[in-house]
Amino acid sequence: MAKIEFVPGIQTPNVNWWQTENSWCSNSYLVLQGHTLYIVDSGIGSLHRTGLLKAITKFRDAQRVYLLSTHWHLDHTGNGMILGELDLRFPEVHYCIPEMAKEDMQRFMESSDASVDVDMGLGRAEWLGEADREEFDLGGIPFTGWKVEGAYLLSTPGHSPDSLSIYLKGEKAVFPGDLVWYVNPNQMEGSIDSLLQSIAKLKALVTVEGIDYLGGGHFLPIEGKQKIIDYISDYEEKERVLLSGLEEVVAGKDRVSVDHCLGRLRESDHPALKEALRINFPYSPSYLHRFIRVFLREKGWHEVEKGTWRLII
Ligand SMILES: [Fe+2]
Fold first, then answer.
1. What is the C-alpha separation between 211 and 83, in angstroms, rounded?
2. Distance 219 CA to ligand 1 centre (A)
3. How far does the centroid of ligand 1 lie from the alpha carbon of residue 76, in Å?
């Protein structure tokens, strides 16, 4: 049996991806350690759910199952209804989520306009409390988070405040959700400062712990320590280029519009900026709009009218 079972998400970016089964959902991963099965991210939509349940049949001897989520976003947590199926198939099932994600998940479930069947499984959640947060020293790199049996749930905020990198030391595998995903953060709740810190820590962890499997949310898994390090370094560099591109655009100004920033980025020939514009997803506001807004907010700018920001010191 494969060390890690990969269940690919269906990755067709679509403006209304939550309204069709055949759309944008995250990857899932299954890892067996002894008699314990870890499932990373449930994804969303019945097509993905079918694939996930099929993969689970390969682990029918597991005695204990942990469903874990890298972060609360819908495309990673929307198939919580599989918990009912897991309860039928396995003697012991746990669903562990950081408490800090609870409010966002509850609010989402109360106001969701998703057309696909969504269940974040909140009734079954075992909340990981802030008071129970632990400190870990992994090869000299400090992390905080939780340990759930053999899995380290390491806080790596940036894409979202609750983002975890799920580290299975015995398998030399890490699942960072959407932490490693250019252009990032692509949501207003993200933080570029935190993201860069988290990426640096993740890369250091891969290096010192000899991690050889990187299972991200929206791209194919990467195998081999050096390949992972190169991939993260390349990503880190692109994020820095985007950041310094924006710093140049706003230098000396105290009033800018997001559209002006985008226009200036379009003038650049830098491959990282060209890539950012090429992959910019057609949501409204787009990923780049959101990135620019997070950038301005973190640099002390305030939105004074729609799309226009002022530097207020
Ligand atoms: Fe996400």
1. 29
2. 13
3. 7
**Rounded distance between C-alpha atoms, residue 121 and residue 80, angstroms:** 4
CA of 271 to the centre of ligand 1 (A): 25
Task: Indicate the CATH number of 4-237 among 3.60.15.10, 3.20.20.70, 3.30.70.100, 1.10.3720.10.
Answer: 3.60.15.10
Distance 181 CA to ligand 1 centre (A): 9
With a cut of 70, say whether residue 1 has pLDDT above it: no
Tell how far the Cα of 252 is from the centroid of ligand 1, in angstroms: 33
Q: What is the pLDDT of residue 127?
A: 98
Ligand 1 centroid–CA 286 distance in Å is 14
Amino acid at 142: P
Mean pLDDT calculated for residue range 283-304: 93
Q: Ligand 1 mean position to 312 CA, how many Å? A: 30
For the chain, give every domain's residue range: 4-237, 252-311
CA of 91 to the centre of ligand 1 (A): 31
Closest C-alpha among 169, 153, 158, 140 to residue 198: 158
**How many angstroms is it from 71 CA to the middle of ligand 1?**
7
Q: Where do we find the tokens 């905080």?
A: 144
- How far, in Å, is the centroid of ligand 1 from the Cα of 41? 11
Q: How far is CA 227 from CA 109, 139, 158, 184, 250, in A?
A: 38, 20, 23, 21, 35
Task: Give the number of other CB atoms < 10 A from CB of residue 21.
Answer: 16
pTM of the complete model? 0.96
> What is the distance in A from the centroid of ligand 1 to the CA of 185?
9
Average pLDDT over every residue of 72-89 = 96
Q: 115 C-alpha to center of ligand 1: Å?
A: 19
